[in-house]
């Protein structure tokens, strides 16, 4: 396990760092309203995407790597062409800042955006309409995170609930967690949900029954939206922390396996796991760190 | 007889060759290529070495491909290509060019295409090329060629027509002898040379000439224009100094020029001179490379060669003769004139020469640049003139006329053209306007008046009157002011509506911090709204309708980490069909068009909300329609987003909960903070309008409203359905069947059981009086109105009332979880349903009676089934 690279992105505080779908590149969202495309292995900046009028909170890469969607404090969702950096579409319907954006997995022809206005809006990239295809407004507070698999949409919300929408079955499972949820991700094996609470805790919840499987403690997560995820084999839980570390837990015994110490003790709030290899990107202040988890 | 070469070594030495050997006609080199070329080898290439079809027109040696017609691929017929994008042109006529080769269009081909000099001018060029006249330098020649006239002069043309050719002298032809003599005179040693000497005739020429007969008429020699050489050095006259430039074969100036063939064309003289190497000059001997051996190196300049007096030489006569025949003064004397020409008696007047203009003494020859760089600003001095000009142009018509000394035009007044009546009217207007202006305004008073006017405007516009401002008492205002005020009011009203909409939206969200502190009131100051600032600097404070207390049981379970069944709830969620398509998933609800989360009955109860504004606005509408039919316009879907401001919902503690049901109780509570005097005008106006409602009407309506708003007691429904023992049907199909009937029945009951209902309502909720509610809003008293509420969501039809009744008991277990979503339209929907049903009920009173009976039977049936 080693720190492979530390990149100063030069775009103010990094709000989110995301690997693309094959893990060769990454995008960073900066407080300076820009999104940058990087090759983190070579520490190469490839492109800068601008257009938002306020800082960019989240971004996602499409499955064919040719588009980026971004969500910003300026309440808009942009659909950007990677090559030309042209903004193809600007969606403005959210009333508040957009907290999370995500493409649907298979074809990336939808953008799902969650906002502080308590709504998840689904935008159709195929149609010419600038109206959302569907608005999910079950949320009573700010939507913090969206995760997807092929037919399910997992939405975490500050109203202490995690909602799992199943497009195939046409139902929604709402799990009351009891604490504001800042991040919820589906595990790669599609069995569990990992839920980060504003309570210094991460819960592993069975997707089918809603029962708690395990609990992970040790990191600090009280005030900020700190992301967590699982590795590709669903054996390790990874989370950022407010004490400048990235924590790794063993899924089964729930003990801290490893701490990835960053250079200073500021919050590590965004992490992204390489979809193919055992590598993590973490964002702290204006830096992104690339970690290799191979032993 | 001859022997073969090299007979010594030849083995055929003894052989005797008989006969005369053929003389070798071919040159030495050609001997090797005696063998005839095979056709394959006979490839003719063009000047660039490319293998080319050598056209028959140019007499090529190999025509076509190895002397065959066609190409390597054989004889290729012309192809015809035509596509949609590039339509082929149909060729009907062929020109000879179509059959010609590239070569034929060359300079030497049969149909040259390049630019060529017309034959008319060709001669001129040739003449120049062969011109014998020396040039002072090359630049002269270039200049000459540049300004060469396009057309030859009229004189030349005339001469040509008369048989003159370039290179000939002008004048009558003379006998050869005479010419010879002349030339001899010319080149007689010791003869004075004027200008430049003509080239001496070559000896061979002379010899040839001698052979020819003497009485041939020959044209005289041409004499070129006299070229006066400019003396550029300080040597003596006729002295040729050493030309060092030629020492190394090339003069510096020519080195570049000579290399290109074009240059050699341009500078024929230069090209010639460079052939000579070494130093040339009079005082220098003949160099090693000098070809001109015949130059008299040791020539002494003979003084006899020079004239020392005009016309004082001995050869005066011959000179005169020469003069007469050609050159200057050929026509000076009348002796020899061309035929048909006569000397004019009028002497040509010398062309007038104009003197050059006198240059002023202070004129500076040198041009002074005012700007040192092009980036400098143009000096003002230069532009001053222009400025004055432009200012002149810009000056007014009157000032210009003044400058020009014209008589100024007196403009007539417009008033002069008006009729006396109009003038009077205008004057009147003017004075009134002045008085209005002068009138000291009591600003405070004005403001108050304006506020009053606005209030009436708002109340009017709430009545949906077509022109709300028209009824406003706006006396004492001018038309213009009225217009202005009208616009202002309209904008203000719209903005207020928007603000209220925004407030309702905002009220849905709570910050995390406040979320944690349960039941804490959220007060928001809308300081940014400028309009409100103006209006008494009101800060709208509003509480949120938000149940922040989580359902206790679930919460407990969550805290105890008993996640699972307790914490999980499942809803029906209908994805948009397109979303399904994009997810590559079949639509689970193919038959329904609605999408979104469908909340179960228990949840619906949870999410029950009561908006006071719903009632109030509805009331104002009731009032509005008082004059007309009561329920006509309620159907109009007017989005009422006025949220639950001033309303705070609090779920009652479990002790207060009624025995059977979990009831969401709405506690109307005043915002005690600053509200008594500071209230947004919008609400005030609503209140005002409410006050105007006639009491009697209001009471009746309110009772109805309340009834509809409330979820009636189970017993009451029982009474309506007259199902004493059995529970209402849960079966879906049954419900669907009954839907219409239920609809009608409910409406019917409203009509028929008016008295009953009111009693029921009063029994269940003793103090409910919306008037009181509104009054409370005005007076801000701490009255708590506890109410049972049963909102009916838009999406759910009336049949779900039945459903909800059935599930009522379930709901009793679940604690009240009122969602924050305040869909004011829910309540509204109820009204609409009522209105529809009312209308229907009027028409179908009789029918409904029958149906009621019918329904009773049906419901009984269903219960039996169960």
From TrEMBL, chain A:
<dbReference type="InterPro" id="IPR019775">
    <property type="entry name" value="WD40_repeat_CS"/>
</dbReference>
<protein>
    <recommendedName>
        <fullName>WD repeat domain-containing protein 83</fullName>
    </recommendedName>
</protein>
<keyword id="KW-0677">Repeat</keyword>
<keyword id="KW-0853">WD repeat</keyword>
<feature type="repeat" description="WD">
    <location>
        <begin position="91"/>
        <end position="127"/>
    </location>
</feature>
<dbReference type="InterPro" id="IPR015943">
    <property type="entry name" value="WD40/YVTN_repeat-like_dom_sf"/>
</dbReference>
<feature type="repeat" description="WD">
    <location>
        <begin position="7"/>
        <end position="39"/>
    </location>
</feature>
<dbReference type="GO" id="GO:0005737">
    <property type="term" value="C:cytoplasm"/>
</dbReference>
<dbReference type="InterPro" id="IPR001680">
    <property type="entry name" value="WD40_rpt"/>
</dbReference>
<dbReference type="Pfam" id="PF00400">
    <property type="entry name" value="WD40"/>
</dbReference>
<dbReference type="InterPro" id="IPR020472">
    <property type="entry name" value="WD40_PAC1"/>
</dbReference>
<keyword id="KW-0963">Cytoplasm</keyword>
<dbReference type="GO" id="GO:0000398">
    <property type="term" value="P:mRNA splicing, via spliceosome"/>
</dbReference>
<dbReference type="GO" id="GO:0071013">
    <property type="term" value="C:catalytic step 2 spliceosome"/>
</dbReference>
<comment type="similarity">
    <text>Belongs to the WD repeat MORG1 family.</text>
</comment>
<feature type="repeat" description="WD">
    <location>
        <begin position="231"/>
        <end position="259"/>
    </location>
</feature>
<dbReference type="InterPro" id="IPR051980">
    <property type="entry name" value="WD_repeat_MORG1"/>
</dbReference>
<dbReference type="InterPro" id="IPR036322">
    <property type="entry name" value="WD40_repeat_dom_sf"/>
</dbReference>
Automatic annotation (TrEMBL), chain B:
<feature type="region of interest" description="Disordered">
    <location>
        <begin position="370"/>
        <end position="392"/>
    </location>
</feature>
<dbReference type="GO" id="GO:0005634">
    <property type="term" value="C:nucleus"/>
</dbReference>
<dbReference type="GO" id="GO:0003723">
    <property type="term" value="F:RNA binding"/>
</dbReference>
<feature type="compositionally biased region" description="Basic and acidic residues">
    <location>
        <begin position="436"/>
        <end position="455"/>
    </location>
</feature>
<dbReference type="InterPro" id="IPR011666">
    <property type="entry name" value="DUF1604"/>
</dbReference>
<dbReference type="GO" id="GO:0006397">
    <property type="term" value="P:mRNA processing"/>
</dbReference>
<feature type="region of interest" description="Disordered">
    <location>
        <begin position="805"/>
        <end position="866"/>
    </location>
</feature>
<dbReference type="Pfam" id="PF07713">
    <property type="entry name" value="DUF1604"/>
</dbReference>
<keyword id="KW-0175">Coiled coil</keyword>
<feature type="compositionally biased region" description="Acidic residues">
    <location>
        <begin position="723"/>
        <end position="740"/>
    </location>
</feature>
<comment type="similarity">
    <text>Belongs to the GPATCH1 family.</text>
</comment>
<feature type="region of interest" description="Disordered">
    <location>
        <begin position="429"/>
        <end position="470"/>
    </location>
</feature>
<feature type="compositionally biased region" description="Basic and acidic residues">
    <location>
        <begin position="373"/>
        <end position="388"/>
    </location>
</feature>
<feature type="region of interest" description="Disordered">
    <location>
        <begin position="642"/>
        <end position="664"/>
    </location>
</feature>
<feature type="compositionally biased region" description="Low complexity">
    <location>
        <begin position="812"/>
        <end position="825"/>
    </location>
</feature>
<feature type="compositionally biased region" description="Basic residues">
    <location>
        <begin position="837"/>
        <end position="866"/>
    </location>
</feature>
<feature type="compositionally biased region" description="Low complexity">
    <location>
        <begin position="647"/>
        <end position="656"/>
    </location>
</feature>
<feature type="region of interest" description="Disordered">
    <location>
        <begin position="723"/>
        <end position="747"/>
    </location>
</feature>
<feature type="domain" description="G-patch">
    <location>
        <begin position="151"/>
        <end position="199"/>
    </location>
</feature>
<dbReference type="Pfam" id="PF01585">
    <property type="entry name" value="G-patch"/>
</dbReference>
<feature type="coiled-coil region">
    <location>
        <begin position="486"/>
        <end position="532"/>
    </location>
</feature>
<dbReference type="InterPro" id="IPR000467">
    <property type="entry name" value="G_patch_dom"/>
</dbReference>
